[in-house]
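Provenance and format

Records in this collection were gathered into a single text stream. Each protein contributes a sequence line and a token line. The two records reproduced below are adjacent in the stream.
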Amino acid sequence: MALFKKKPAQELSIKDIQLPEHIGIIMDGNGRWAKKRGLPRSAGHTAGAQTFRKIARYCSDIGIKYLTVYAFSTENWRRPSDEVDALMRLFKDYLQEAIRDFKDDSIVLRFIGDRSAFSPELLSLMNENEEESRERDGMVLNIAMNYGGRAELVTAIRDMANEVKDGSLDPAAITEELVSQHLYTKGQPDPDLIIRPSGENRTSNFLLWQSAYAEYVIMDVLWPDFTQDDLNQALIEFAKRNRRFGGV
């Protein structure tokens, strides 16, 4: 994966390009953003949450149909307990805010990942947000919380194995399409574009199955500093790619 070089803002224009249907974003760099400013890591997560709100609404406004953001991975539990606690408080604040402030938005909220590790209060807020937004007709916003691509595949394989065991699934009937229907994103198109701010060149266990043919754009900007112009540049870069899906 090559690092995408930012271009001057005046060159940006998304009026005449084909937008991706589904974007994934690895929201990376909050801790480094805070460290550069001599602030606690929690301050970086707070700033990153503000960026998330702006970018999610902007994606909805310009007509993106699906947006999946990597909010908290299965590996993030290994971070210091005070940082994890701060993130959980941020999630709670966001979920409470979403119930209040997204009432007039068309955004459909979904949470993907293993929910078993979250507190009953967070689980209740997640369920309430999904229920409140279920009938909306706008962009689907997937928030990946306690999510890992490998864990997602293990869950899918276990579910299919149980179906084989109880006789409801013939092993010969297992196809790529069937696997996809056992993932958290079932019923949704695979991501066309995955954006990774912060300049890191790795997938970090994000949408491993779904991103098989996604275009990656790696940008040298920390997530709290990520702007609408940065997103526009990533979209323009995506539009220039020749997507052959293994063909000629």
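Adjacent record:
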Amino acid sequence: MRPTPISEIARVAGGQLPPFERGWRGAPGVCLSAPSGAPVTSVAIDSRVVQPGCLFAAIKGQHADGHDFIGSAFARGAACALAAHIPEGTATADGTGPVILVPDVEAALRALAAWYRSTLSIPVIGVTGSVGKTTTKEMIASVLGARFSVHKTPGNYNNELGVPLTIFGVEPWHEAAVVEMGISHFGEMARLTELVRPDIAVFTVIGDAHLENLGSREGVLKAKSEILLGMTEKGLVVLNGDDPLLSALDCAQRKLLYGLGAHCAVRAEQALSLGETGARCDIVRGGRRLQVQIPGFGQHMVYTALAGAAVGFELGLSDAEITGGIAAYAAVGHRARVKDTGFLTLYDDCYNANPTAMENALRSLMDLPGRHVAILGNMLELGETAPALHAKIGALARELGVGLLLCTGELSRYTASAAGDIARHFETKAALMEALPALLNPGDAVLVKASRGMRFEEIAERIERLA
């Protein structure tokens, strides 16, 4: 974050900076204790990561209230804090640090992020969709990194708390920013796009995600399309042209379609999966043809490379920079990670799941050699459609020729039932993990996937220890 005076932080948050007596509990929107001369150089909502110069925002969460850690934040060198009140007994009640009091800390944090975004003159790329947001964000950042100093969303900071922190992470030396934007309710994207105001918006795919709140794929598209509200008509919207809903999207901004279809301006030709080592294809736009190697497993990686190339084309990168950026891509976390354990091939894709992502993973599994084993759990937030969508995945596994399907979780009963005699359902995750040594064979290709709440990374770690 560009060094910013505390007085400016307080102004943007709606505050004043007169001196107040120690322990004062005045109206919201003022700064308790006179500010020091040290500027704010970063923002945090977790007191454990506070460093000197940091603004600590005291967020009240489900399990902890940041207000209880204001004293700890100042002990670690915080320049100031943003809070709705000062708990009795904290160090700041004795006047040891400036605290900006506001009615709503999260709203004030968003206001600060929107203001900070307004000071940036670099291109900002927003990434949304039902599947592959993080992978696409990483690919775009890798491509742009061939020329620019790029800031990107760290980890899974893609929601209404994470996006402001991502924006604050832009430093004076950055030349581009790639921001992942995830939502599960109507109106969330509208609030996020007010902060991000992307110059380029990239859509991955519209799938059956968060249907409990959004109702249908059309509802998902409507909610995701709120990103356009933060864009000017000069902006560019990069869309997966093989997704019928996205291909038909009507917007005021310029549209650029990517995909395999001939109607796509940026398209892949001669796409070839190379199994666990990745894929290759030709990426074509107009008279330009790039031969690319994609170091990521899964059929979806061709689309990810196309999205990265589309943004690269728009920002003027050369063919060599785009191909080099794609080749430099590296997967993060438990996303489409393929590993030869010495006993079997583990396809660890257990970071999260929805029906679209689950289908893609199953189809990609079939590209690996060996007996195909899928270990699947619940897909969450699907509402009344959940039983039918879980059953559809089980039927697909059988249709594709999966050799063994192992399931746990109440909803995955429908998956196992639809798959028939290739499937076994376990009452608990512990029971499934205990049975793994007797069920898995040397040379198997094993997919592990479920929604994040299932914590299937424990299963992936158990498989890695098999010998």
